[in-house]
Design a protein that fits this description.
- 55% of the residues lie in helices and 8% in strands.
- It is built from 13 helices and 6 strands.
- A 4-stranded mixed sheet has the order 2-1-3-4, covered by helices on one side.
- Helix 3 packs across helix 7 and helix 3 packs antiparallel against helix 12.
- The chain is globular and about 60 Å long.
- Bound molecules: glutathione.
C-alpha cells in the first residue's frame, strides 16, 4: 500500500502536475505538494527529472522518485479505493486511455507550440516560470533566470515538431479540439459522461495552460469555447462531486460529440504515433509523417513508441465483446489504424 499523504514535487506551469493534483483532489487522496525539491535534502532524484515527481516506496520499501502520470494513475487506482478515475467497463476504459494519451502527448504539442512561438506568450512564460525555481530572486536575477528559461525552451520547439510548416496544422487542430469539446460540454459534464475519467484529467492538465495561462491560445478559447474555459476551472477541484457507477458513458452508444474528438485523435495524433513507432523500430533518429496533408518532421521518441505499445497491448487484452465495442466506436475515426486486427 502507498502511504498517505503522498509527497510530490511539481509546479503550477506543468500540465502533468496539474493533471495529478486534480486527480488527487477528486479521489480524496491526501498529498503534500513541494514546489522545489532542491530545498529538501535527502529526496531521491528522478532521471530524467520530470514534473511531477512523486516520492513513493519501492518494492524494497525505500523511497524512490517516480514520474509518469499515466502509470501512476493506475497505481493509485489499485492502492486507493473508491471514486475511481478509470471506468469499470473495459471498453470505456480503453477509450478513456486513448483520449488520455492524446491529451498528454498531442495537446502538449499545442501547449508548447503557442508558449514558445509567440512573443507575448514567451514573455509571460519565461518570467513567470522563472519565479517557480524555488528561492526568491531580485530583479536582475529574475531577468537572468527568465532568459535562461526561454533560451532553453525555444530551441526545444523542434522536439515537439513545431515549426513554420506544422504551426498552422497544430493551431487548426487546437481550434477543432476546442470546438469538439465545447460541443460535448453542451450535453455532458465530462469527457467520460457524468463523472471524470483519466482522459478528463489529462486534457484538463494541458488546458490549464492553453486556456488559462498562455495569452494566445487563451484568447482563442475565451472567444470560441466558454464552456471549456469554465470546465477547466471546475475540474481543478472535484472533491465535492459524488460520482455513481451510472454516471459513466455507455461505450456502445458514445455521443457524436465524443466521436468528433476521437476523429481529431485519428487525424492529428494517429499518423504521428504510427510514424514514430516505425522510426523507433528502424532505429531512425527522425520521424517523417504527414498530418493534414502537411509534412511533419520531428525527433523520434522512445516514450511515444511505448505509449502506442501500451495501448496496443490493452486493445489485445480486451475480451472479444469489449474489443468489438471499442472497434465499432473507433471505426471511421482514423484511430482504427492504430489497432490493426491480429493476424489469424
Ligand atoms: N509523461 C510524463 C511527462 C512529464 C513531463 O514531460 N513533464 C515536463 C514538465 S510539464 C518536464 O518535467 N519536462 C522536463 C524539463 O522541462 O526539463 C507524465 O505524464 O508525467
Amino acid at each position: 500500500m502507498t502511504p498517505t499523504p503522498l509527497r510530490l514535487n511539481g509546479v503550477a506551469g506543468s500540465p502533468y502536475t496539474r493533471k495529478m493534483l486534480a486527480l488527487l483532489r477528486y479521489r480524496h487522496i491526501a498529498y503534500r505538494l513541494v514546489h522545489s525539491a532542491a530545498g529538501i535534502p535527502g529526496l531521491p532524484v528522478s532521471r530524467p527529472h520530470l514534473l511531477p515527481t512523486f516520492y513513493l516506496p519501492g518494492a524494497d520499501g525505500a523511497i524512490a522518485a517516480v514520474t509518469d502520470s499515466t502509470p501512476l494513475i493506475r497505481r493509485f487506482e489499485r492502492d486507493f479505493n473508491g471514486r475511481a478515475a478509470i471506468p469499470a467497463d473495459p471498453a470505456l476504459a480503453f477509450i478513456d486511455a486513448l483520449l488520455e494519451d492524446f491529451g498528454d502527448e498531442w495537446l502538449t504539442k499545442a501547449m508548447f507550440h503557442y508558449r514558445w512561438t509567440y512573443a507575448a506568450d514567451v514573455r509571460k512564460a519565461e518570467r513567470i516560470l522563472a519565479c517557480w525555481r524555488g528561492e526568491p530572486q531580485d530583479d536582475p536575477t529574475l531577468a537572468a533566470t527568465a532568459a535562461q528559461v526561454s533560451s532553453r525552451q525555444v530551441p526545444r520547439l523542434r522536439y515537439v515538431g513545431s515549426n513554420p510548416t506544422t504551426g498552422p496544422v497544430i493551431e487548426a487542430g487546437y481550434r477543432r479540439v476546442l470546438d469538439a469539446m465545447e460541443d460535448h460540454l453542451r450535453t455532458h459534464r465530462f469527457l467520460m459522461g457524468g463523472r471524470p475519467g483519466a482522459s478528463d484529467f489529462a486534457v484538463y492538465g494541458q488546458l490549464t495552460q492553453l486556456t488559462q495561462f498562455d495569452p494566445t491560445p487563451m484568447a482563442l478559447a475565451t472567444e470560441i469555447a466558454p464552456r471549456v474555459c469554465a470546465w477547466v476551472l471546475m475540474v481543478e477541484d472535484l472533491s465535492g462531486l459524488d460520482p455513481t457507477e451510472g454516471d459513466w458513458l455507455d461505450a456502445s452508444h458514445l455521443p457524436d460529440s465524443l466521436l468528433r474528438l476521437l476523429q481529431e485523435v485519428g487525424r492529428l495524433y494517429a499518423p504521428l504515433l504510427l510514424a514514430n513507432a516505425r522510426a523507433i523500430e528502424a532505429g531512425a533518429a527522425e520521424v517523417q509523417a504527414s498530418v493534414d496533408g502537411q509534412p511533419w518532421v520531428q525527433q523520434a521518441f522512445a516514450y511515444q513508441a511505448k505509449c502506442l505499445a501500451w495501448l496496443a497491448r490493452d486493445h489485445q487484452a480486451l475480451d472479444a465483446g469489449a474489443r468489438a465495442t471499442v472497434d465499432a466506436a473507433l471505426a471511421g475515426t482514423g484511430c482504427e489504424a492504430l489497432f490493426p486486427a491480429a493476424p489469424g
